[in-house]
Amino acid sequence: MAEARRRLRSSTVVLGGMGVVAAALTSCGSEPDRRCVDRDSYTYEGYKVVADKNCRTSTSGSSSSSGSSRKKTSGTGKSTDAAWYYDADVSKGRADYGTFSKGEAVDRGGFGCSGGSSGG
C-alpha cells in the first residue's frame, strides 16, 4: 500500500512538472492577446472594442509598429480611429490596462520568458 501511494505521488509530481514546462513553452512563442479598439472612444471604463476588420493592415505577413489603420469610415458614416490594443483587460465591450505597442506586450512575456529582447 505504501509503495502504491509513493508511486502515485511521484507520477503526480512528474505530470505536474510536465504541465509547467508545456505552459512555459507555449506562452513564450505565442502572440500577445490583442483587441481592435477605437482610440477616440476612451472613457473611465477603457477603449471601445470594435470589429477586427477596422484594424486590418494592407501589409501581408507583418504589421506596422502600431498595427493600426487610421480613420476608417464605418457603415454609419462615422470615422473610427482604430488600432490594435495588446494585453488588455476586457469587460463589457471595453478594453483597458493594455498597450498599443506590440513590442512592449511581447516584452512583458509569459511564465518562463526572458524580459528584455534588445538593449538601448
Shape: elongated
What is the helix fraction of residues, given as a range? 25-40%
> What is the radius of gyration?
21 Å
- Mean pLDDT, nearest integer? 72
Low-confidence stretches: 58-69
Distance between the termini: 60 Å
User: Count of helices?
Assistant: 2
Helix and strand string, N-terminal first? HEEEEEEH
Query: What multimeric state do the chains show?
Result: single chain
How does this model look, in words?
This protein is α+β, with helices and mostly antiparallel strands and 120 residues long. It has helices at residues 2-29, 102-108, and strands at 34-43, 46-49, 69-73, 79-86, 89-91, 94-96. The chain has a six-stranded antiparallel β-sheet with strand order 3-4-1-2-6-5, with no helix packed on it. A hairpin with a 2-residue loop joins strand 1 (34-43) and strand 2. It is elongated.
List the helices and strands and how they pair.
Elements: H1 2-29, E1 34-43, E2 46-49, E3 69-73, E4 79-86, E5 89-91, E6 94-96, H2 102-108
Antiparallel strand pairs: 1-2, 1-4, 2-6, 3-4, 5-6
Brief sketch in words of this structure:
The protein has 120 residues and is an alpha+beta fold. Helix content is 29%, strand content 28%. The protein has helices at 2-29, 102-108; strands spanning 34-43, 46-49, 69-73, 79-86, 89-91, 94-96.
